[in-house]
Write a sequence for this structure.
């Protein structure tokens, strides 16, 4: 009897060890969680930490080469945080180079089509000098020399107002944006948003969340945190340097796209469309429409998201990078 009990104990221990050991097939990339699945220490485990939907987790491997049932993900920074989740809990994302094919069971980048609209604020203010954010603009303000966030728009363009009440939709369409609810944002996110999105002075952030953000995530913090992370990488790139070096001068769409290629890799320029507007005898660059693939959860970079985006026409051939103030 003792021998049988000991054998059973050893068998159970071995099964647990096999579950917790390194995955038999190693994988690279991340798992973008689709639902709040339980991540367990063992394949048979029913308790553990829940995954956060939309978040990217480092992917360590899968339990077998053929017909795997589980992925192994790393929840923290050490191997002690490796856990097993069902294979249907998320999407496998890998970092692929331009033109590099992906395996059938992999996705070369997140698959949700997104459009990041960024403004050149001085040009915006030429046509709207009475806007609050335009009245207060000056040469030393961040948006005088950096791109301003207009919005992050899930595609297609009809994908708007997700689970929004009729009253909120009516207020938004009537531009009563100050009537829209306050957004629950962390202090650091709110402060950064005021800097990068000067339109917050006119409640643009409430409008963008209600119309577009509700179709991106379940909360405004995630929507704006991801948007600001993309903006930070754009605003510290060769693209921003190109605009600052040519304030008052004409810049071609070809040069803008080339700057994207330099900063974010071959092919990234084909994801950028330039928008211009005539101002008297001048043509001003007012906005860049940048096509990305999402969701944009960490550690997905701006370069990764660009490579996953849809190609687009270049838009206008070029225009002037407008300086601050009425010209």
């Amino acid at each position: 009897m003792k021998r049988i009990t000991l054998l059973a104990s050893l068998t159970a221990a071995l099964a647990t060890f096999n579950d917790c050991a390194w995955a038999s097939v190693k994988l690279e990339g991340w798992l973008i969680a689709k639902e709040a699945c339980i991540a367990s220490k063992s394949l048979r485990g029913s308790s553990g930490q829940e995954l956060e939907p939309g978040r990217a987790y480092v992917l360590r491997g899968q339990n077998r080469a053929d017909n795997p049932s589980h992925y192994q993900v790393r929840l923290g920074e050490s191997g002690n945080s490796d856990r097993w989740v069902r294979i249907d809990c998320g999407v496998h994302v890998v970092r692929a180079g331009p033109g590099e094919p992906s395996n059938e069971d992999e996705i070369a980048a997140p698959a949700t089509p997104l459009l990041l609209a960024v403004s050149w604020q001085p040009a915006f203010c030429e046509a709207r000098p009475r806007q609050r954010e335009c009245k207060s603009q000056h040469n030393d303000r961040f948006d005088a020399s950096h791109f301003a966030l207009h919005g992050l728009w899930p595609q297609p363009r009809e994908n708007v107002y997700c689970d929004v009440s009729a009253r909120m939709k009516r207020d938004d369409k009537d531009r009563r944006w100050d009537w829209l609810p306050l957004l629950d944002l962390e202090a650091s996110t709110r402060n950064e948003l005021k800097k990068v999105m000067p339109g917050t002075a006119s409640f643009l952030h409430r409008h963008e969340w209600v119309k577009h953000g509700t179709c991106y995530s379940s909360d405004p913090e995630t929507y704006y945190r991801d948007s600001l992370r993309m903006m930070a990488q754009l605003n510290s790139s060769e693209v921003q340097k190109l605009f600052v070096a040519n304030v008052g001068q004409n810049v071609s769409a070809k040069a803008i796209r080339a700057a994207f290629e330099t900063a974010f890799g071959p092919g990234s320029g084909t994801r950028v469309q330039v928008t211009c507007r005539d101002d008297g005898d001048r043509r001003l660059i007012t906005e860049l429409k940048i096509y990305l693939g999402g969701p944009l959860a960490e550690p997905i970079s701006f370069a990764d998201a660009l490579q996953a985006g849809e190609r687009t026409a270049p838009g206008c051939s070029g225009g002037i990078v407008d300086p601050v103030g009425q010209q």
